[in-house]
Specification:
alpha+beta
Length: about 200
């Protein structure tokens, strides 16, 4: 009996030391974090930070509506260690998800439990959530309406055996912003040129 217990403990320790850490990809965990992703709104710049009704409470305000449904996507990026730069992040495989709907759950990505390559169980990683409007592009890189969270650290990643997946306690809300299509710039340039020509003729 003792040998069996020791074997189980040893296995757990080995997994926690050598295995990939596991996180709870969710921005709504009661008592820990309640954050949202807000839609783009004309002339509103990129923002980050919680509102007064989120957890922890903040002072930020957003004009856009909460993202809801399959028309929007989100994915998780990560790097091993605390305080890493955005350039160090890599996409976490299998993290692509859409958004939940409703008064309570709207604005939050559909949750996933994910192993994070390169970040060991029990370790700390730097994370970022990126989201976009699918109607403006099939991926974050291609989308013209998109946004990303501020970088946040997650410590004590789970091991899948002895410890639970780590929650995103340091995540803060953010919004999407729209980037004009190249054709918009072309039209703006033509308009400006026409205005100059018209003024010269006058």
């Amino acid at each position: 009996m003792k040998k069996s217990i020791l074997t189980i403990v040893a296995l757990g320790v080995a997994v926690s030391v050598m295995g990939q850490g596991i996180v709870n990809f969710s921005t709504r965990v009661s008592g820990t974090v309640v954050g949202h992703v807000y839609g783009a709104f004309p002339a509103e710049l990129a923002k980050s930070g919680n509102t007064a009704s989120e957890t922890p409470a903040g002072v930020q305000t957003y004009s856009g509506a909460l993202l809801q449904g399959t028309g929007f996507s989100a994915e998780l990026w990560a790097a091993n260690g605390a305080g890493q730069t955005e350039a160090a992040l890599s996409l976490v495989p299998g993290s692509l998800t859409t958004f939940r709907t409703g008064v309570t759950l709207g604005g939050t990505p559909s949750p996933l439990t994910l192993p994070v390559p390169g970040v060991p169980a029990g370790g700390t990683g730097t994370f970022q959530i990126r989201a976009w409007d699918n109607s403006t592009g099939a991926t974050y890189a291609l989308a013209t309406t998109k946004g990303k969270s501020a970088l946040f650290d997650v410590s004590g990643l789970g091991d899948g055996i002895l410890t639970l997946p780590a929650d995103f306690a340091n995540f803060r809300s953010f919004n999407l912003t729209g980037v004009p299509e190249p054709s918009t710039f072309v039209l703006a340039g033509l308009g400006a040129a026409a205005l100059v020509i018209f003024r010269r003729r006058k």
